[in-house]
Design brief:
The structure is a single chain. By secondary structure, this protein is of the alpha+beta class. It is 28% helix and 22% strand.
Length: 678
Amino acid sequence: MTTAAEYGATSWELCVQVEHQYEGEPKEFNIRVTGDLHIGGLMLKLVEKIQIPQDWSDYALWWEQKNCWLLKTHWTLDKYGVQADANLLYTPQHKALRLQLPNMKTVRLKVSFSAKVFKAVTEICKTLNIRRSEELSLLKPLDEPQKKKKKTKEKSNDPIIEDILNLDNTAVTPGTAASPGLYSKTMTPIYDPVNGTPASSTMMWFSDSLLTEQNCNVLAVSQSNCPPEKLAKLYQPLSLVDKAAINAGWLDSSRSLMEQGFQEEDKLLLRFKYFSFFDLNPKYDAVRINQLYEQARWAILLEEIECTEEEMFMFASLQYHISKMSKSSEPQSYSNEPDIDEVEAALANLEVTLDGAHSDRMLEDITDVPKLSDYLKLFRPKKLTLRAYKEYWFVFKDTSISYYKNMECARAEPIEQLHLRGCEVVPDVNVSSKKFGIKLLIPVADGMNEIYLRCENENQYAKWMAACMLASKGKTMAYSSYRTEVRNIQSFLKMKDLNSAQAQAAPNLEAMEMNSECFVSPRYVKKYKNKQLTTRILEAHQNVSQMSLVEAKMRFIQAWQSLPEFGIKYYIVRFRGCKKDELLGISYNRLIRIDMSTCLPIITWRFSNMKQWNVNWEIRQVAIEFDQNVSIAFACLSCDCKIVHEYIGGYIFLSTRSKDQNETLDEELFHKLTEGQD
């Protein structure tokens, strides 16, 4: 038994500050401890000395000098290295945080400041009823850009949002089950599957949550449009370098908020980070689809992603339709398909598969290799030459295109064979002018080979464009999604066609009162008068006027996904052996090396061809190996290399998902693929 003298010789006084929820300044307490005292015992002694009856279960010890939480309660002070000079803070793990959602609405809720950001985002998404939380993350707000004039500094930091939705009491506390949100484990739809509005009758299941029907509508229903004068004041990225500055703000998913320097009541942005949207189902994803639509809408309005003028008015018409439907008090027509739960859907799918009647997934004849053949026009850009297209006979088979002088020469050797695996496919389309072109950037030894193809009509374009897109990913037309891709392209072209019979119909005179400047980017507000904008939006609206609310949102998201720049995040890097800075584009399926002066792609590397990647944490350099003995290495200049490393690992992780996982995430695998080795 240790004597009092021996205890005094081996013990010391440890100063611990305690943050109390009802008091401003933290109070200091001196506790007599020894090195073999475990953290749990220290907290017990502390609570006994505080003598304030309350629930202390959410409290934990924060070590300020080491910038870490002492969460392993069975570890001793010696094992953690805590000595008499340590400054410890006994503070709640869940603290209030202001989050700006993709719809620019700010919510205030309690978030875990001790859990890794990946886990904290999972808790946030459960509170907000957003499925697939692994696609989202937290982003630091961008500081005021230096390029702006002094007068713009006078504007408020948040010109759109005046009020804050307070969800402070909805946080998940230790020892309690997380709220299931607005979707149940059986995935039974619990709101209108057509207009996306949560059903009132189901709110009884979540009566213990502050996310009531009113609050849920704020998240699941599109909000009123931003006035054009406020829209014009918002920062618009002007170059890829500006976009790189924004992308440097992503938080480290493997560290906690507290470890990254954030405090209570700080403001962060909740955004979709990984543009690989899995199992996006209108029946279960009212909030998720609306927030995704809002992120896409703001990306278009602020020109964070480039689109043509024709596409801008198509997006504007969809926005107008969604805004009109959201404000309408008339009930929407229900889908003809009956609601079925996940088990019934799985049984029906199994029955169809066993019967062999699922024609979209199977080829009619497994020995029949699909191919396309037709006359197309080809152009190869050269310096000091006019764009002259020449007609050839093209044959598309597997992942390659061969072209011949004419159809009769198709049995001989082709003039050239183009291998599309790993290429960039860019639409070159103007429906109003009947221009249906495909731009191919094919990787070669010294960069990218640029080729333009011109189709005769939209049907021919849809077939060849879908085939090129699949081939760029290493897939053939035998792949099950080919027909779906063709239909999606045809539908996309139809929405853009202002010469169709529907678009030529007389516009609704009542709609002429709309504020059309809210639906296009400020650049078009300067280019056209309000009446011209209104007329063009209403013409385009005729093509989408029969869509339901949720269908219009899904079409908007699909059209956003079809843009050439979709999902590409830019970073300034310097490749090994090079003396100049370049841009690296990271997408859901590839890396793109981009010339900073011309902003044109130099070469593309597909994730599907990646063998391994690693990071030299001493010199902060990312090294990647691909098939065919191709290896690259680069240092990140616009951000820490951990952000790029996490992006690559995150996309690899998302590619492992499957529907049979039943909403569970392999969090350990995510951290294995994305954590740093500092």
